[in-house]
Amino acid sequence: MSENLTPDEVDIEVFGQNSVFEGPEKLLEIWFEPSKDAIPNSLFQNDTEYSLKNGLRLVERVVWDKFLELVKCEVLNVINNDYMDAYLLSESSMFIYPHKLILKTCGTTTLLVALPRLLEIASEYCHLHKVWRVFYSRKTFMFPERQLHPHKNWNEEIKFLDQLFGKGAAYTVGKINGDHWFLWIASSPDGILKDPSHNDTCCPTFSCPLDEIDEKKPSILDLEDQTIEILMTELSSTTLSKFYHNPLEGESGTEGGLRIGQETGLCNLYPEARLDSYLFKPCGYSANGLLGDSYFNVHVTPEPICSYASFESNIPVNSGSFMDVIRQVIAIFEPGKFSVTVFKSQEGSFDKKLLVEFIDVIDGYSRKDRILYDLDGYDLIFGHFEKKK
Q1: pTM, whole model, 2 decimals?
Q2: Binding residues
Q3: Among candidate residues 220, 250, 274, the one where a domain is terminated
Q4: Residue 184 and residue 138: Cα distance in Å, rounded?
Q5: Domain total in the chain
Q6: Domain assignment present for 26
Q7: 205 and 187 part of one domain
Q8: What is the CATH number of the domain that holds 314?
Q9: DSSP secondary-structure letter at 33?
Q10: Domain for residue 2, yes or no?
Q11: pLDDT tens, 265-294?
């Protein structure tokens, strides 16, 4: 977050010493298998040290550190449980399951540049040679001119992903002349990526044999998947002040993160979760939370000229509970504007019409946009709200 600003991310001409930072994140989720049970058993036989780990979780920390250098970020702390490892990064978060990885980075990080190396790691260290699903998404950037290749524009990102995995489906969700959200997804009705093209200029050493159909058929439980994101801008001045480090109030880092979580109520979003949080100098906040086989994260960029906060979670909730989560988060940050995306697999019983109806009324806010997409195996609900004057 703000502790690692590059020289061209600092604008001391605006708001005195306040800096400019790109808060909106790039979000990648890549699945190598439908579930951890589909990972080859040979990876963890006769290995007592990693008796509770397999697949991507076997990769050593030093390998991930080098991988993240390509992204232009570093690890601050790591927590784990029986299901996953959660990496708190200098620019957001990374979650590693045995069969999938979620990487979320802000600022001018080069997330997609590191994708070929991720495929190499999965193949070389874990014998995971097939990509099963890929999702890449982001909000519109506040300062797109500061981004580096291949993140300078959405078309450039689409081209990079299409070259690496074969042509996926790219979407622009929301009003082009207002707040909108980008999504690139590669999947197929049976959950297998078939015959994607491979571009050696993108990934010169990784062989990507994804044209073979996987004979393992996942169960409905394996396929069920849901994620909610709340992306907030124009945070209230009262909110902003809470996420600045004040030496008179205590330490920054993990101690400061713990204090901020208690003072703001963020630690009460999921009281039973294991929380790992960090307060940056001079400002900024990040937190990862683990609850069983699910996670949530919170990231805050409190500089007034570019204030931004995000909340993301794949902790299962029913259609009614989505609004409870949204209201809790909005009450903490009091944004001037916010967008909500709910991404839900179509397996299992779920009333998507009811969910769309719930994303409607938020006290103190006017709904400016609401869209339902029926994607390939997923439902996507997008809503945008602005504070009433």
Answers
A1: 0.87
A2: 21, 91, 280, 303
A3: 220
A4: 9
A5: 2
A6: yes
A7: yes
A8: 3.60.90.10
A9: S
A10: no
A11: 999 999 999 999 999 999 999 999 999 999
